Amino acid sequence: MKLKPDKMKVLTRQAGGHDIHRRHHIKSDGRNLFFYGYEPHTLPRVTGDDLQTVTGSELRFHPLRGDWAIYAAARQNRTYKPSAAANPLAPSKPGAPLTEIPFEDFELAVFSNRFPSLYPEAPDPAASSLKLQAAKGACEVIVYSPDAQGSLATLSQARRRLLVEAWIDRYQALFEAGCAFVLPFENRGDEVGVTLHHPHGQIYGFPIVPQPQQFAADAFEQGYDLAADVESWGAPYLISEAGGLVSYAPRFARFPYEVWISAQDPVSGPWAFSEEQAEGFAQLLGDTVRRYDAFFGRETPCMLSLHAAPHGRDGKFQFTAQFYPLLRAPNRVKFLASVEQATGVFTVDVLPHQAAEALRGAL
Fold this sequence. Notes:
- By secondary structure, this protein is of the alpha+beta class.
- It has a domain at 213-360: 2-Layer Sandwich (HIT family, subunit A).
- The chain has 6 helices and 17 strands.
- The chain has helices at 157-176, 211-221, 226-233, 275-296, 338-343, 352-360; strands at residues 7-15, 18-26, 32-37, 58-62, 67-71, 108-112, 132-134, 138-143, 181-188, 200-206, 238-242, 245-248, 259-263, 302-307, 320-325, 327-329, 332-333.
- The strands form 3 sheets. A 12-stranded antiparallel β-sheet has the order 1-2-3-6-8-10-9-14-15-13-12-11, with helices on both faces.
- A hairpin with a 2-residue loop joins strand 1 (7-15) and strand 2 (18-26).
- Helix 1 (157-176) crosses helix 4.
């Protein structure tokens, strides 16, 4: 297959006064690969055969819960804890089998997942007595660095700022492609089920607004003011602040040591950040993970998700980044067992103001 010429673009937004360059490469199986960097990415492609995508999925509605599940049997055989030599997120080397990134170096990369549960060409499901929907959308992998080791805690501030701008660009592109809700997220640690330890996250573009985000959008539109609420809680719940954003343990946390980041002057999504807010957000991402690692004395297994407004519902929505650690104490895992799974009612082992106090003192 003859590859299409790459497209180069300078993004509208800058980071720290520096241009952000994007290169769009289409792989031989038709999947997108984007490079983001402070310098144009001009390296030649390493020759070889691209990894090929595997697809097949659909959405099914649960009539008793009122929510959707994705059925994606093709993901059962996705890559599982490969050796360092077979790391699919590393840059490719001439003469070796290609990784997902067929270039020898990069600053930050985003590519369409090889084993997507949501993808643009998902077919309409066959007629059924079930309530079904095509799994049209996007599943992308965002690789923070060419280095196989590291985390949000150890990346430079400049690299975290680049990550924020890449997220913003993908939000805009996926909304334009018809996604109803976009969720950038990161899973970290074996306890969370991570199978690739190279520093990376993912981005899902959904054809529907999932139930929790629908509830959140409704609450904001009905007048709930998170920023005012956080301010009313006062210092006992605050952990750190930077650039007009704060990190804190929400009074209604469901996980022990759960941390949220949000703007004191609310924004509906990262695309609405000022330069100062974007810098502060990038700083608090690293600060939060460093505090976790210092407090728990290890690389902390946790989940990070970015909760921005669904498409077309900016209005009163207030953006948050939410961290859910999978530990309730050093080397004690917080298991989501029968009660939490059956009812959605969590049992929380640590009071939020105690969690905030512990994390404030961790650094």
